[in-house]
Write a structure and sequence with these properties.
Length: 804
């Protein structure tokens, strides 16, 4: 305790040093705490599922190993034949219009789930009870609601259980409310019990018994492993069942089954990005600690006489070291507390900046575990980086140290120089990463999406299958909606089309070209499929290269037609005119041919970073789906366009509601959100590191110049030119920078591999970026070295000669 009191007095005696040291540590700790809060919430905090490690997502895979959804027939075989799963449940998500009061409809995420869905997850409800089995299938439909639905529909009224809610116009009874901490993978807040052992299909299935269908893969599955069964053992079991299914149904496409832990599926898309960002802020903390260590070395040099006198009076070296470490511990504690306070604001800013799609983002906070980790890290780093300065400062030679003309501490200067080299190397790694991400982001912004984003608005629409079960019903509503919007005036083009831009969801299938050998082995041509109306290309601003758009001839009863993009035409009819080519979607000779009537430019349908896939556009009346995107082009203000859309949909069906309604420009910006977030954060951290490295180099050169005060005074008195006085110090700084840059380039090349998944159009070890950031650091180093040297020239030579 006496050591801590003395340490506090010693720090208060040098307020300038103390403030700078604490502020430097606080800066590094604050950004680390903020990012660790995100990492903790997203990656580390336990999921709200019973026995989380035994909950797995169940995927089917095609011959290329790509994940796919389940068909009813395959899923029921897996459920019946497996011996390794305690329970397996199917689910399918969509947007739904929900209302608990007349005239108050909200759009919420809905999952159609089988009866054992909550048995698999094992999370107890906050109110009521979850589905119990076959008894729940009798009578009115039953629904479990999440915290968001509870808030929007019932204002968190505890009497919500047992009350009625209309979902897509159908009355349902609320049987449970899930706790706020319960969050499913896609953010749904309604779980509606399916009336059959599989979720209802969104497609108009023609089979007499839809439970035997093996062609329509439309829902996902989650399972709980049986006791004492590992994922590897369950994988072998399901692999054998998949092989049996393939043997009994050879037209099934060679599908297999893959199990993925639910945590990996939940956070897999963001894990690498968060770890890269956490690594970046870790480098910032190292640079900050190196700066503080450098300050401690300089401070120790200034306290040599004090430490020498204490040693002469009987203080042991261990006593001196413990005293100096007590001071660094207080600095670490002060920096930790100040950094913790700053991180509370930083976390709020981070949550606002985070792109959509980051799982569990709403739960990000500086909680007790984060606080404890922060304080422990602050104390640990401060003590670790204070050990070397403490040992160096406590190494005293009484006879030598009491001589004013003795050694000025060249070993201390070498120690600080090593720290500065390390700071510059770490800073270059951050700058190189920020530069690569920045150039990649610029390249991404320059990508042509294939459609004109100005004056276009898109709105998501999902039709309830209970009221629009058949493709003809869906097509009829789309037709009424398009005609109604066109009749209202003010809109230049109106259309519907699935999938919407950057939605990520796609229908796809294989086909046979006219003239192909239908019995030939090997993989057939494949394409993504878009179901669109005739005005889609005008509404989206997609240029047509050849042929025609869809028109009134392309009804359900008319000949099957298609429009292809340039990627599909170039891949499957290279060097040929695709107009007039014919394809067939299956081997049945009774299936009518589909004729290609148009050719359009490629669009970046899956995202600006993704190469355009082969895309086959078909008229929505010939391939109708219960989900679509309404696209309009207009010069009207956005608020007017939104009002028109909502008014016409209410006129067509008052129980329907749009999902997101956004300008197409907003959709494009949203597709860049993740890249923008990463680039912004790494850039900010790199800027902080540059500032800290510059301060560290400035401090070292200032210390060196102060040691050379007598020499400078003599040289100036003898008539030395300013250039001759400045050059040695500036040269020292540049040499240190070059050493740090050399180390940093090697480290940046090695660390660049961690960025490979996040860059577009540039290499992770881009020579131009490395050259640019190296030049920047050299300029910063030259400036940081020049300023203290320039200041030394203003010292009166007589005063300088008296310094000794």
């Amino acid at each position: 305790m006496a050591s801590l009191r003395y340490a506090a007095r010693a720090l208060l005696a040098t307020p300038g040093f103390t403030v700078v040291a604490i502020a430097t540590l606080a800066l590094g700790i604050a950004v680390n705490t903020a990012i660790f809060s995100v990492v903790n919430a997203v990656l580390l905090r336990p999921l709200p599922f019973r026995d989380e490690a035994r909950v797995v997502r169940v995927w089917t895979t095609n011959t290329r190993g790509e994940r796919s959804n389940h068909s009813a027939g395959d899923f029921l075989d897996l459920k019946r034949e497996n011996r390794s799963l305690a329970a397996i449940a199917g689910y399918r998500g969509e947007l739904a219009a929900a209302s608990a009061k007349p005239g108050e409809t909200v759009q919420l995420g809905l999952e159609h789930v089988t009866a054992d869905f909550f048995d698999v997850l094992g999370t107890p409800p906050a109110l009521g009870r979850t589905f119990t089995g076959a008894a729940d299938l009798r009578g009115e439909r039953q629904v479990v609601i999440g915290d968001e639905a509870w808030q929007k529909l019932f204002d968190r009224d505890a009497s919500a259980v047992g009350r009625r809610v209309r979902i897509n116009g159908e009355p349902c009874t609320v049987v449970a409310v899930m706790p706020k901490r319960f969050e499913w993978i896609d953010g749904s807040s309604l779980w509606l019990l399916a009336q059959q052992p599989v979720p209802p299909s969104p497609l108009d299935v023609k089979e007499a018994d839809p439970l035997t269908n093996r062609d329509s893969h439309y829902f996902e599955a989650v399972a709980h492993l049986a006791p004492d069964v590992t994922i590897a053992q369950a994988q072998q079991d399901l692999h054998a069942i998949a092989a049996t299914i393939q043997r009994d149904h050879p037209d099934n496409g060679g599908r297999d089954v893959r199990l993925v832990p639910v945590r990996e599926d939940l956070v897999g898309d963001v894990r690498d990005a968060l770890l890269v960002i956490q690594g970046a802020v870790g480098l910032v903390l190292l640079v900050a600690c190196a700066n503080v260590s450098s300050l401690l070395i300089a401070r120790g040099a200034g306290r040599r006489r004090e430490l020498t006198i204490r040693a002469a009076l009987g203080a042991s070296r261990a006593r001196l070291v413990s005293q100096l470490l007590a001071e660094t511990a207080l600095l670490g504690l002060g920096g930790g507390l100040l950094g913790l306070l700053a991180s509370l604001w930083l976390v709020q800013a981070l949550v606002r900046l985070m792109p959509d799609g980051v799982p569990r983002a709403a739960s990000v906070s500086v909680d007790v575990p984060v606080m404890l980790v922060t304080l422990a890290a602050a104390l640990t780093t401060s003590v670790l980086f204070g050990v070397v300065p403490a040992l160096q400062a406590s190494r005293v030679d009484s006879a030598q140290a009491l001589k004013q003309s003795g050694d000025r501490g060249s070993s201390r200067t070498r120690g600080r120089a090593a720290l500065v080299i390390g700071e510059i190397a770490l800073t270059l790694v951050l700058l190189a990463g920020a530069g690569v991400l920045g150039r990649s982001f610029v390249r991404l912004q320059q990508v042509d999406p294939g459609f004109a984003v100005e004056h276009a608005t898109v709105a998501d629409l999902m039709l309830p299958q209970t009221r629009y079960p058949k493709g003809t019903d869906q097509a009829r509503l789309y037709h009424r909606l398009i005609d109604g919007l066109a009749a209202r005036g003010g809109l230049q083009a109106v259309a519907v089309g699935f999938p919407g831009p950057f939605h990520g969801a796609n229908a796809s299938g294989s086909f046979v070209r006219e003239g192909d050998d239908m019995h030939a082995k090997g993989e057939r041509p494949r394409a993504n499929i878009a179901a669109v109306s005739g005005g889609y290309f005008a509404a989206m601003g997609i240029p047509r290269i050849a042929g025609r758009a869809f028109d009134d001839r392309d009804r359900a009863e008319g000949p099957d037609v298609a429009i292809v993009n340039t990627t599909l035409a170039g891949r499957y009819w290279p060097g040929q005119d695709p107009i007039g080519k014919r394809i067939r979607t299956d081997d049945d000779p009774k299936t009518p041919w589909t004729t290609v009537v148009g050719l359009v430019v490629d669009t970046r349908q899956l995202g600006l970073k993704e190469a355009p896939p082969p895309l086959l556009y078909v008229p929505y009346e010939q391939f109708s789906l219960p989900f679509t995107t309404v696209a309009v082009r207009s010069g009207l203000p956005q608020a007017s366009v939104v009002a028109l859309l909502k008014a016409e949909l209410a006129a067509v069906d008052p129980d329907l509601a749009f999902g997101d309604i956004n300008p197409l420009e907003t959709e494009v910006r949203g597709s860049l959100a993740e890249a923008r977030f990463r680039t912004l954060l790494i850039g900010l951290f790199a800027a902080l590191a540059v500032a800290l490295a510059a301060i560290g180099l400035y401090g070292l050169i200032s210390y060196t110049v102060a040691q050379r005060t007598r020499e400078i005074g003599i040289r100036v008195a003898l008539g030395a030119a300013p250039r001759q006085v400045l050059l040695p110090s500036v040269t020292d700084g540049v040499v240190l920078a070059l050493a740090g840059i050399a180390c940093g380039v090697v480290a940046a090349v090695a660390a660049g591999r961690a960025l490979s998944a996040f860059v577009f159009g540039v290499g992770t070890s881009d020579p131009l970026t490395l050259a640019g950031v190296s030049a920047l650091l050299l300029l910063v180093a030259a400036a940081a070295s020049y300023l203290p040297s320039r200041r030394a020239l203003k010292v009166d030579p007589i005063v300088a000669l008296r310094a000794e």
